[in-house]
Amino acid sequence: MKRMKKWQGILSLVIIVAIIAGLGFYATTIINGTKDQSDDSLKLGLDLAGGVSITYQAVGNYTDEEMEDTVYKLQQRVDSELGENSSTEGTVYRVGTDRIAVEVPGVKDANELLEQLGSPGDLYFIRHLNDSGEENYSWGNAGYELNYSIEELQASGDVVLTGTDVASAVASYEKDQTTSAQKPVVQLTLNQDGAAAFAEATRVAYNNDEDTIAIYYDGNFVSVPSVSAEITNGQAVINGMEDYEAAQSLASFIRIGGLHVQLEELESRVVGATLGSDALSSAFLAAVIGLIIVMIFMIVMYRLPGLAAAIALAIYSVIMIAILYLYDIALSLSGIAGIILSIGMAVDANVIIFARIREEIATGKGVAASIESGFKKALSAILDGNITTLIAAAVLGGLGSGMVKGFAITLAIGVLLSMFTALAVTRWIMRSLYAIGLTDEKFYGRAKKVNVLDFIGKKMIFFACSLLVICVGLVSIGVHSVKGYGLNYSLEFLGGTSTTVNFDKEYSLAEIDSDIVPLVSQITGDNDIQTSKVDDGTGIIFKTRTLDLEEREALNSMFEENFGVTEDKISSENISSTIGGEMRRQSMIAVIVAAVLMLLYIWFRFKDLRFASSAIIALIHDVLVVLAIYAVARISVGSAFIACMLTVIGYSVNDTIVIFDRIRENMQGMLKKDEQAYADMANESISQTLSRSISTSITTAIMVLMLLILGVSTIREFALPLLAGVVTGTYSSICLATELWFLMKTKIGAKKK
Fold first, then answer.
1. CA–CA dist 734, 737 (Å, integer)
2. Are 428 and 369 found together in one domain?
3. Following DSSP, what letter does each residue of 595-639 receive, concatenated?
4. Which of 48, 158, 368, 702 could serve as 153's disulfide partner, Cβ 3.0–4.6 Å?
5. Model-level pTM greater than 0.70?
């Protein structure tokens, strides 16, 4: 590429400084607005900002299984409705035996949320004429009216579908074949049973002069569309909408009508943050200090390229904040995890490039040629590592829900942004610095001769150490399983007791954490206590493990003795887990699918299944080691656990692929193909990338360590296993993945010479 002239380099640097200043001012405004909760602020999750809580009462007869299914479907409903425009992480859980609570962050108006979600009720698709040719519904003085009861229509088979037969209902636009205008419609997708029943019903209605099939919801006709064709594929379109808002309303009715249990709104209230403003302030402070330390580390380690990377990292950070703000992406604890991982990958991409530049300079090339060649040779490792992470993010975002989706969205944005800043911004800055006269190779560094270490020869030691740690974790899980649960599950997994206390005065979240929570903890014997404020009064909600009658009475006595709160101002009720069985299964499926797709991608790119399988085994190892840490240290397993595991998975694969990319490159120059030659080549590849692996781990660990030091208790609990995950991810990439590949390469399918 044509080199910049000096004046172009100066102009470029001036533009870069102006961009940083402008974006920095913009980001500072957003951060300050977020702390003050002004209009110019980031959208925050329920754990950081509070939101609306709505409680529904189940009506009629239902089974426990139907209630659980309703919770799951309502969670999907919340994710679907709110996910259309943001990554807001709503949670749905059971309260007692006959109620369901919905909590959604960032909403200050309960009526607004109710309007978005729709009012839960029964939904029926009813054919117009019965088998005798009589009308099941007809036009009356007040519009369409039923001529028979729903029970009679169900008994006669004239109810074609119910809400449970509808897989999805979405408002959209469709081109009118006559006028070519875009008209609002509702697109329906039915499940397998519903598609078969609807095919027969539409065939009869279409052959009967395009008769109608009515949609009857919660005692009212919400739409009576004509059937203009026989629909056999389970995909239907309802047209004739007045406007797009009407289509959205009908789609909402249909979606919410798919619940198995009829629900009535019992109460709604605005709740405060569960982590509080202190958590947000400490997270911002940790991020700023961490970034500054990382920038200093990069400059010390890589000189002028390190300075370019520091500038690019600053641009990355402020653009990330701007994207979160502009697209109303809710930031929660899991979102912070995704950002931490993407920052690590942003630094990693630069480290790979700089190592390549130094290697090129060491071969005798000029600095300018080395810069261009370094970016070119680093491209494949950067793309492969980031694409595998994007695959994971896409699957987790598509199949996951709640916190998993929040993690996936911030991770995907961060990965794409990190590739842009590393491959475009850093390159632009380095060309500009070279153009203004910084051309001496001393500013860039020269790769020293690599001391090749015998990692392959020590593979059995590495394997034994890993097995020992994993076995310790499994034994710990087994021992604790005898006493109760193998892992220290939080109330988010097990459910618990929600106690609402109306105090005589208002307490801040800091006062709650320091003055009240320790007293509650003395009674529960457990530190897993979640608190949130009811913003329209002096009420505070305490969520703890399930309390028995004696413990509830002790808790009531404590509030009366220490705070003068009488029992009539205290209400307690058991709640189900917010991370229900369906969400756990869905998250597990998402992780498995992501692992399979990553395996296939690595197999495709490296043309060898042994690379892919080694990477996945190393990934499983990292998950098991972090799980062992949770088991031995008895760290609370809650929503942060899922975010932590997802981060470890993303980090592990990216780290491994960089080494595999170097192995793939070095294999091309091999003259001998025996076992010793492969061992020497593998050792050389690990040694060549060792400084990069350590540098990336240090920078990522710095970010996590700042959260561990400066974060509130909940964030520290999340940061500790995450830090362990970064360490074990680095260890497995260096000491396990390549060694596993070597064994497979030389022992499985090896060609006999």
1. 7
2. yes
3. HHHHHHHHHHHHT-HHHHHHHHHHHHHHHHHHHHHHHHHT--BSH
4. 158
5. no
Edge-to-edge strand ranges of the sheet holding 123-127: 159-162, 123-127, 213-217, 220-223
The pair of structure tokens assigned to 640 is 């942060």
Residues 6+ apart with CB under 8 A from 494: 485, 545, 546, 577
Nearest CA to 646 among 718, 741, 737? Answer: 718
CA atoms within 13 A on the CB side of 266: 15
CA 415 to chain centre: 13
DSSP readout, 101-114? EEEEET---HHHHH
Instruction: State the pLDDT at residue 260.
Output: 67
Residue 212 and residue 188 share a domain: yes
Q: Cα–Cα distances in Å, from 502 out to 100, 127, 506, 533, 556?
A: 22, 52, 9, 10, 12
| Count of other CB atoms within 10 angstroms of residue 14 | 11
Contact 22, 453 (CB under 8 A): no
Q: How confident is the model at residue 81 (pLDDT cuts 50, 70, 90)?
A: low
Residue type, 651: Y
**Same-domain status, 419 and 553:** no
Identify whether residues 566 and 470 lie together within a single domain. no
Task: Please report where in the chains the tokens 């202190």 appear, as a residue.
Answer: 278
Which of these three, 60, 77, 112, is where a domain ends? 112
CA pair distance 238, 227, nearest whole angstrom: 9
What does the block give as tokens for 64? 């426990």
**Quick check: is 70 in a domain?**
yes
Q: What confidence score (pLDDT) does residue 475 get?
A: 94
Given a contact cutoff of 8 angstroms between Cβ atoms, the answer to whether 355 and 691 are in contact is yes
Most confident of 6-20, 252-266, 459-473, 493-507: 459-473
Tell me what pLDDT residue 474 has: 92
DSSP code per residue over 663-705: HHHHHTT-S--SHHHHHHHHHHHHHHHHHHHHHHHHHHHHHHH
Measure CA 587 to chain center. Answer: 10
Please indicate, yes or no, whether residues 422 and 301 belong to a single structural domain of this protein: yes
Tokens of 355: 């190592």
Boundary residue ending a domain (550, 575, 600): 575
Q: What is the pLDDT of residues 563-601, one digit of tens each?
A: 998 888 888 877 766 665 555 666 677 778 877 888 888
Among 463, 548, 541, CA closest to 731: 463
Angle between helix 549-563 and helix 517-524 axes, rounded to 10 deg: 150
Which pLDDT tens digit goes with each residue over 388-405? 888 877 877 776 655 566
Residue 317 lies in a domain: yes
Q: Which of 595, 614, 630, 588 is nearest to 474 (CA)?
A: 630
The number of folded domains in the chain is 5
For every residue of 22-56, DSSP letters joined together read HHHHHHHHHHHHHHHT-SSS--B-HHHH-EEEEEE
Q: In sequence order, what are the residues at sequence separation of 6 or more whose Cβ sits closer than 8 angstroms to the Cβ of residue 181?
A: 175
Alpha-carbon distances of 150 from 86, 136, 155, 157, rounded to whole Å: 38, 10, 9, 10
Q: What percent of the chain has pLDDT over 90?
A: 12
| Six-digit token string for 548 | 């028995």
Q: Among candidates 297, 549, 319, which has minimal Cα distance to 421?
A: 319
Q: Which residue has the tokens 């190779």?
A: 441
CA 376 to centroid of chain Cα atoms: 32
CB 329 within 8 A of CB 87: yes
Q: Is residue 403 part of a domain?
A: yes
**Residue 583 belongs to a domain:** no
Residues 294, 421, single domain; the answer is yes
What is the extent of the structural domain holding 194?
123-258
Yes or no: say if 572 and 517 are a contact pair by the CB < 8 Å rule: no
Percent of the chain with pLDDT over 70: 82
Q: The domain spanning residue 512 has which CATH number? A: 3.30.70.100
